[in-house]
C-alpha cells in the first residue's frame, strides 16, 4: 500500500454555478446499471450460471428419459423453463435486498436520491432478465428439439395457441413477485424463505380448509399459474391468475416501494 | 457551499441531533468534531437526504440534496467505507459509480491511481480489503465525479499514519483550489492538522464553532466572578479582554496572578480562577467524551 498522488486533481468547484438539471439520472442508464449489478457479484453470476445449467440439464433429461412422443419443442420449453421460474425470482429478491443487507443503499441513494427511479430500474431490469432467460431457453430447447428429431423423437415445432406468451408472462410475473418480496422485506434470507413458504403454506391451507378452497381458486398464485404452462388458457383462467397476481405481486410491490422510499439509509 | 439550518432529529424521546446550524464555505476545510454517538453521522446523513430530519433543513449550493439531479457531479460523499458489496471488486464499485454519474469510465483507473490502489488491489473483491483500503476506495468514489464539495465521515479511520498524512494533503489541496470540505472525526488532533474551521458537537448540540485558530487560542485562564459584568469592566480597564465561556466564566489570555490582582483592586468576589489547560478546546472535548463513554460502551 503506497500513498501516491500522481494525477493532480482538477480544480474542484468548476461545475458549480451552472444551473442544475432537475431531470436527474435517466431510467435507461439506471436500468443498465441494475442489470450489471445482477451479474457482477459471485452470488448473482452463479445464480445465472445455475439457471443456464439447469435449463440445459432439463433438456438433457427430457431427451434421455422421456418417451419419444413427448419430445416436442413445447414439451421441452415448458419443462426447460421450470428451473428459471424457481430461481429467477431469487435474483429479483437479491436485487432489492442486497442494497440493505450489503449496505450498498448508502452509495446507491447518495448517487441517485430519487429512490423511486432506482426501484423502477430494478423492476425493468428484472423483467428484461426474465425475457432474456425465456428467449435463451427457447434457443436451447430448439437445439434440443433438433437433437430429438435426429434421435427419433417426435420433434414437433407446434407450440399451441398462446403458449409462448403464457410462458413469458409466467417468468415475468414470478420474477416481479420476487422483487416485490425483496422490496417489502429488505432482508435476503427472510425474503427468500417467505417467498417460497407463504404461497406454499397458503396452497396447503387451501387444500385442507374447505371454505378456503373457493378463495384459493382466485388467490393461490401456485394454483392459478398452472394453466400458464398449458396451451389455450381461457379468459376465466386469466382472470383468476390476474387476481392472484394482484395479491402476491402488485400489493407487496406497492407496500415495498413505499417502504424503500421512506426508510432511513444508514 | 453547505448550509445547515436548525437541523434536528429525534428518535422517539432521544434527540440525536438538536438544532444544529453551520455553514461550510468554498475554499475551507470544516472539521466536524464530536465523540462517537454525538450526532455527526446523523447530521451528515440528513445533509445527504438519506435521513429525513425532524426539523430544519440542509442545502447544497442553495438546494436540498434530493433535488440535485445528479449529485455525484457536484458533491462527493463518503459516509461509511464499509458499506460496499463484499462480492464486488474495487474496480467494479467505481465502474458502477462512474456509470451512474455518467463520467468517462477511463476516469476509474485514474481515480484508483489517485488514491493509491494499484491494479492488483482494484481486481480484488472488497471483502478482502482492509479498512484503510476501503477508505481509499470510498475516497476514490467521492472524487470520481470531480465534485466541488466533499462530505467525509471519519475518513481517517483505518488509515495508517502515512495514509492520514496523504489524505490531509489531498483535502488541503482540494480546498485550496476552491473546494468545500466537511470532514468529521472524533479525534481533535486529526482534524486540527487540516481544518480551517471547527464545529464541535456533543450530545446532538453544537458546543463550539468558529475558526480553528480562535478556538484553539481559547486556552489562557478561566475566571468566574459573582458579578460578571463588573469583572468584564475591570478586565477591560486593565487591558485584558476575555472571551466569555458558555457557563458564565471568562477565558483570558494571561496568567492567574494578573487576573487575581485586577479582581482584588476592583474588590470583586471570584468564584473560580484556574488555567484553561493546554488547549481549552481539548479540555472541552475530553469532558464531552468522558460523559459519553458509558453511553458509547453500551451501544
UniProtKB/TrEMBL annotation, chain A:
Keywords: Membrane, Transmembrane, Transmembrane helix. The keyword Membrane applies. It comes from Actinoplanes nipponensis. The lineage of its organism: Bacteria, Bacillati, Actinomycetota, Actinomycetes, Micromonosporales. The chain crosses the membrane at residues 45-66, 72-94, 123-147, 167-185, 192-212, 238-261. This is Uncharacterized protein. It comes from the Bacteria.
From TrEMBL, chain B:
The lineage of its organism: Bacteria, Bacillati, Actinomycetota, Actinomycetes, Micromonosporales. Gene3D superfamilies: P-loop containing nucleotide triphosphate hydrolases (3.40.50.300). Belongs to the ABC transporter superfamily. Keywords: ATP-binding, Nucleotide-binding, Transport. GO terms for molecular function: ATP binding; ATP hydrolysis activity. InterPro entries: AAA+_ATPase, ABC_transporter-like_ATP-bd, ABC_transporter-like_CS, P-loop_NTPase. It holds the Pfam family ABC_tran. Residues 2-228 form the ABC transporter domain. It comes from the Bacteria. This is ABC transporter. The keyword Thylakoid does not apply.
Amino acid at each position: 500500500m503506497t500513498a501516491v498522488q500522481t494525477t493532480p486533481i482538477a480544480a474542484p468547484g468548476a461545475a458549480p454555478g451552472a444551473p442544475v438539471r432537475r431531470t436527474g439520472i435517466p431510467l435507461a442508464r439506471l436500468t443498465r446499471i441494475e442489470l450489471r449489478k445482477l451479474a457482477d457479484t459471485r452470488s448473482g453470476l452463479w445464480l445465472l450460471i445455475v439457471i443456464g445449467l439447469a435449463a440445459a440439464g432439463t433438456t438433457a433429461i427430457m431427451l434421455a428419459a422421456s418417451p419419444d412422443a413427448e419430445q416436442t419443442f413445447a414439451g421441452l420449453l415448458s419443462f426447460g423453463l421450470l428451473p428459471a421460474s424457481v430461481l429467477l425470482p431469487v435474483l429479483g429478491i437479491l436485487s432489492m435486498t442486497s442494497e440493505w443487507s450489503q449496505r450498498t443503499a448508502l452509495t446507491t441513494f447518495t448517487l441517485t436520491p430519487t429512490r423511486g427511479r432506482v426501484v423502477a430500474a430494478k423492476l425493468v431490469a428484472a423483467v428484461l432478465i426474465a425475457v432474456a432467460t425465456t428467449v435463451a431457453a427457447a434457443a436451447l430447447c430448439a437445439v434440443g428439439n433438433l437433437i430429438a428429431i435426429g434421435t427419433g423423437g417426435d420433434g414437433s415445432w407446434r407450440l399451441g395457441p398462446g403458449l409462448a406468451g403464457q410462458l413469458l408472462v409466467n417468468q415475468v410475473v414470478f420474477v416481479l413477485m420476487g422483487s416485490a418480496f425483496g422490496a417489502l422485506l429488505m432482508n435476503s434470507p427472510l425474503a427468500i424463505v417467505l417467498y417460497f413458504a407463504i404461497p406454499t403454506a397458503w396452497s396447503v391451507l387451501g387444500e385442507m380448509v374447505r371454505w378456503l378452497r373457493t378463495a384459493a381458486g382466485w388467490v393461490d398464485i401456485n394454483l392459478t399459474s398452472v394453466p400458464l404452462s398449458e396451451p389455450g388458457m381461457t379468459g376465466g383462467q386469466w382472470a383468476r391468475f390476474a387476481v392472484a397476481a394482484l395479491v402476491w405481486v402488485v400489493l407487496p410491490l406497492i407496500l415495498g416501494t413505499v417502504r424503500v422510499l421512506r426508510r432511513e439509509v444508514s | 457551499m453547505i448550509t445547515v439550518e436548525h437541523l434536528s432529529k429525534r428518535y422517539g424521546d432521544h434527540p440525536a441531533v438538536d438544532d444544529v446550524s453551520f455553514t461550510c464555505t468554498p475554499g475551507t476545510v470544516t472539521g466536524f468534531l464530536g465523540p462517537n454517538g454525538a450526532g455527526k453521522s446523523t447530521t451528515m446523513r440528513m445533509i445527504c437526504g438519506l435521513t429525513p430530519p425532524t426539523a430544519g433543513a440542509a442545502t447544497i449550493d442553495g438546494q436540498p440534496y434530493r433535488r440535485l439531479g445528479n449529485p455525484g457531479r457536484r458533491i462527493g460523499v463518503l459516509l461509511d467505507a464499509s458499506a460496499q458489496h463484499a462480492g464486488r471488486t474495487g474496480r467494479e464499485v467505481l465502474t458502477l459509480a462512474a456509470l451512474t454519474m455518467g463520467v468517462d469510465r477511463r476516469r476509474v483507473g485514474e481515480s484508483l491511481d489517485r488514491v493509491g490502489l494499484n491494479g492488483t488491489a482494484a481486481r480484488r473483491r472488497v471483502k478482502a480489503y482492509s479498512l484503510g483500503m476501503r477508505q481509499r476506495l470510498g475516497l476514490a468514489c467521492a472524487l470520481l465525479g470531480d465534485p466541488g464539495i466533499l462530505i467525509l465521515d471519519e475518513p481517517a479511520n483505518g488509515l495508517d499514519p502515512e495514509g492520514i498524512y496523504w489524505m490531509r494533503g489531498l483535502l488541503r489541496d482540494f480546498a485550496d483550489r476552491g473546494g468545500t470540505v466537511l470532514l468529521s472525526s472524533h479525534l481533535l488532533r486529526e482534524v486540527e492538522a487540516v481544518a480551517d474551521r471547527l464545529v464541535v458537537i456533543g450530545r446532538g448540540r453544537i458546543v463550539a464553532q468558529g475558526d480553528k485558530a480562535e478556538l484553539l487560542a481559547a486556552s489562557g485562564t478561566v475566571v468566574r466572578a459573582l458579578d460578571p459584568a463588573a469583572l468584564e469592566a475591570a478586565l477591560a480597564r486593565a487591558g485584558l479582554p476575555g472571551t466569555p465561556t458558555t457557563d458564565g466564566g471568562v477565558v483570558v489570555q494571561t496568567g492567574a496572578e494578573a487576573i487575581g490582582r485586577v479582581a482584588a483592586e476592583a474588590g470583586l468576589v471570584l468564584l473560580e480562577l484556574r488555567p484553561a489547560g493546554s488547549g481549552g478546546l481539548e479540555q472541552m472535548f475530553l469532558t464531552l467524551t468522558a460523559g459519553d463513554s458509558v453511553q458509547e460502551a453500551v451501544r
